[in-house]
Structure formats: structure tokens, C-alpha cells
Amino acid sequence: MSESLTIPSHLLPTDGRFGAGPSKVRQGQLDALIAAGSTVLGTSHRQAPVKNLVKSVQEGLLELFQAPEGYQVVLGVGGSTAFWDTAAFGLVENKAQHLSFGEFGSKFAKATHNAPFLADSSIITSEPGTRPAPEAEAGVDLYAWPQNETSTGVAAPVQRVAGADEGSLIVVDATSAAGGLHVDVAESDVYYFAPQKNFASDGGLWLALFSPAALERAERIAATDRWVPDFLNLKTAIDNSAKNQTYNTPSLSTLVTLDDQITWLNSQGGLAWASARTADSASRVYDWAAASEVATPYVVNPDERSNVIATIDFDASVDASAISTALRANGVVDTEPYRKLGRNQLRIATFVSIEPDDVTALTRCIDYVLENL
After folding, report:
1. Which of 137, 225, 318, 358 could bond 13 through an S-S bridge, CB–CB 3.0 to 4.6 Å?
2. What span, in angstroms and rounded, lies between the C-alpha atoms of 336 and 311?
3. What pLDDT score was predicted for residue 1?
4. Residue 231's beta-bridge partner residues?
5. d(CA 74, CA 85)
6. What CA–CA distance (Å, rounded) separates 233 from 322?
7. Is 162 left (phi over 0), alpha (psi -120 to 50) or beta?
8. CA 254 to CA 63: how far, in whole Å?
9. Using an 8 Å Cβ cutoff, are 134 and 157 in contact?
């Protein structure tokens, strides 16, 4: 049985967390949380200590992404799932176009497509493991896609859509990309994410860098007679964010660990350092798979492979689930594939907090399991 296989200790990584989210939390973040235990935690989110914490997060993100003048960091409770509905209510004027090439891009597409006050969305799909490209379309006022599809390990460029109607917005889901993949946020109007991936915090919060055009769009829609639930009101989120707070009570521990991670990233060299580090880690997985007799990268086109989520298929002679079971029994966890994808594969996160040498150790552990199952 794979559960009874013992991997020699000298092969094991120093930290065995390789999950696609929630992700590995650095010790420094835990230290920051302990320090906040008698100061920030358990205090009002409307008072200066917590508002200053939110301000630090906002300013740190503007620095990390080198945001152009006029961009603002907006945040709200509910995670990316809540933001999809918030955007459907408060950012799309009439019609959206979505790229749907995995589970998470399809969810935002569904939110706008089903909204009774919007025209049917234009949804461009491609086979799992590949990505489509946006197409300029008359009448579309918002183009949306994920920068990184967490379910499949496909990454997509962030860039303006040539020929799009004047004033159309580019809205990018960066939940598993932000802080780990290179981006020029000036190529987007809303670059949004939750903090449980590269930012190594907890879920339940959404953050977004808004361009002046996106802020103006939200203001204009809010002035119409469109009914919006208070919790999903984008103008409310924008107005509260300008005061360094959220509409309703956030998780303070999430803010503490998020702020520490942002500070760490900026101190290490910012996004250039982070994206180089994840590229190093991902290359170790892909190079290992390319040299293996039984493994291969699931994403065939190297230009479409993610540097923060590596998906590796195995030959039919190998039971990938037995590999992940053996790894888990030895403290190497969360390498299972995305459940709905149904592939004989491992999904390995190479987020920025994960040590590249631990990624190499993981590949050696997989080899050991393959040899000894």
C-alpha cells in the first residue's frame, strides 16, 4: 500500500506544502501574527491600528506592482467568488466577453452571462490545457480572463485587446498569479485576486488594482437605477477602501499575514525577484517531467505553462493518486490534481514562498515513490 511506503528523510523537502491554495505560510508571517495577538487582533476594524494595517497593504501592493498614477487598491470581504458577482453588478454596463479555459474563468463567465440585467456574455473557450485569445467585438464593454488558470496550470498574457470599443475595460483574475507572475498592470483596468496563493494568507478577502477608467465606470453604474445588494455594491467597496477599511468586518489575521508577505516580497526585490523565483521552481518540475519516462507536462505548449501551478500527467501504467497518497503519508501534501479535471496527474504549486530546492526535493521523492511502489 502506498500509505505504508517510507521515503528516506534525506530526500524529503524541508517543507512539504505544495498546495494550490491555501498555500504554504512563511514562518515570518506566523511571527507577525503572534506579535499582533496582543495589539491588533480583537480590536475594531474602524480604528486607527487596523486602518493603518489596511493602508500598509494598499501602499505595499501599489509598490509591488509599480502601479501607474491614479490606480487605487480596492478591497472587500468574500474572496474572488464574491468579486465575480460584484463585478457583474458594478463593472459591466451591458455585455462582457470572457475567456473560459478552466474552472475559475468559467465561473466569472457564468456570473455575467446569467445576470438578467445584462446581455448574454460572449464566451470564448478552448480545450483544457490550452488557452484562447480575446477577440475585439462591437458592443462588448468588458473583457475578462484569468492570468493563471489554477485548475489546469495554463497562464495567459495580460494585455489590451486591439480593436476593442473605446472605453472597454480589461478585468483580469490574478488570484493564483498575483505576486508570483510578471505583469504590467497598466495593461489592465482591474487586476483582482484573493490572498491565499502567492500572498500566503487566508481566503475570504478580495483585493484589486483599479484604473481611473474602472473607478469612473463603477461610479457611473452606481448612479443608475440598477439594483445592487449592499454586500456586492462596488461603489461601497471603493468608498470604504478610500478610508482604509472594508464595508463589513474583515479577518484581521488575514490582513496581518498578507501585510507581512507584501513587505517581504518588496524587501526581496519586488515582482521581478518573485517572478524569477517562481520561474526557477517551475522549470525544475517541467525539466524533471520532460526527462521522465512516465511523466510529461500536461500543458503541451511551453509558452502557455504556468510558473506557479505545474500540472504533470503520468503514463497509464502509473497511478498518480497512489503517488500523492504516498507523498501525503510522508508529510508532502496537496499534490492531488484539480478534482473536476479528472486527469491521472499531479498538480504542484510553485508559489513564491516555496523554496526552489524543496521543489527539487519533491521531484526526488516522486522518483523514489515510482521506484518503490
Report:
1. 358
2. 10
3. 62
4. none
5. 15
6. 46
7. beta
8. 20
9. no
Amino acid 93 reads E
Residue (of 257, 272, 147, 151) closest to 200 by Cα position: 257
Task: Say yes or no to pLDDT of 299 above 70.
Answer: yes
CA distance 46 to 54: 11
| Strands lying side by side in the sheet with 190-193 | 72-77, 205-210, 190-193, 169-173, 142-146, 96-100, 122-125
Maximum CA extent, the chain: 66
Question: Residue 312: what are its φ and ψ, rounded to 5°?
Answer: -125, 120
Query: DSSP labels for 218-240?
Result: HHHHHTSS----GGG-HHHHHHH
Residue 153 Cα to chain centre, angstroms = 11
Q: What is the pLDDT of residues 91-120, one digit of tens each?
A: 999 999 999 999 888 999 999 999 999 999
Contact 7, 346 (CB under 8 A): no
- What is the average pLDDT score of the chain? 97
Nearest-angstrom CA–CA distance, 78 and 348: 26
- pTM as predicted: 0.97
Q: What is the DSSP letter of 338?
A: P
- Phi and psi dihedrals of 280, rounded to 5? -60, -50
- Rounded Cα gap, residues 234 and 76, in angstroms: 9
Number of neighbours of residue 283 by Cβ within 10 angstroms: 16
How many C-beta atoms surround the C-beta of residue 70 within 10 A? 10
What is the enclosing helix (H) or strand (E) of 259? helix 252-268
C-alpha cell belonging to residue 36: 499582533
